Amino acid sequence: MRTDAEALKNGGLSSLQRVMAVGMTVMLLILCFSLPVMADMGPKPSISIRVENAPSPEYYLALFSEESGHLSDQEKERLLSEFGDEACAELFDLEFDGKRLYVSAVGHPVYKSNEEGKYRFTYSVPKTFTVVLMTKDGTIYKSESGTRSVFANAFVYDVTNGTLQQDASIPGVLSARTAFIAFCVYQAFIYFFATLLIEGIILLCFGLFRTKNIGWFALINLITQILLNVFNIAFIFMPIPGRYYYLPWFLVEVIITLIEVHFLKTRLVYKNDEVRKKRNTAFAITANVVSALIDIPVVIIFTLAGIYL
Question: What's 130-145 look like in SS3?
Fold first, then answer.
């Protein structure tokens, strides 16, 4: 059995470094599979309402739709307790033209007035809706019918005229695809730096963290991250069901691994500028497997986005 001194002399890893490599890999895998993954991760549709000419400084605002869910008695009691006003209970049972209070699985079905007069409904929002405003004395005002046409919608509700118009002054009015692409770009920056950190630790554990290697290591990761995120954005336009996102993702990960193996196996060096292709290949495969496993939450997000967008 080789001693640590012999291993280091031959450009290998000492016992401590081998333990570190195994330990860090196990830790990263545990971290990967302990990440919370939920169906509501990623961008969500929204409807923002800005109220003009409110008849009173104090009022309640809600969306009404034929798509409404059911407001439980417990939820009614919670809202009454939160607002401290029994008068808003009238909104809970109000019904007109087949429309009822729109209730989302998450978020506020009713808002109390604020100084800005701006309100945002999100997570699950109706396709068609009417804005209903109720004053403290119980007077009801209804807007004309509105339609959610993009991902992040913004409207101005003029209470005096009952009109509901697009509001360009509220930022973030995006189409579904634009919002999804923006999300791709945002997560690309996060995952690029996260990949450098994670694979940099593995690079260190393999005894490859040297000045001459850092440039090549960062460059190939930049190239492959661009490739991966171009695929993520292109996936929006792919004529395949979103639920099968993991299949092309797996293929792209294999291609990226092969590219990195081919690129790095002859460029990473040890002491005395020695190149060990087998060790470089082992590093590239290990780093990509760990990164791919940590990408699993993102795969789930894109799969869900492909289904619902």
Answer: EEEEEECCCCEEECCC
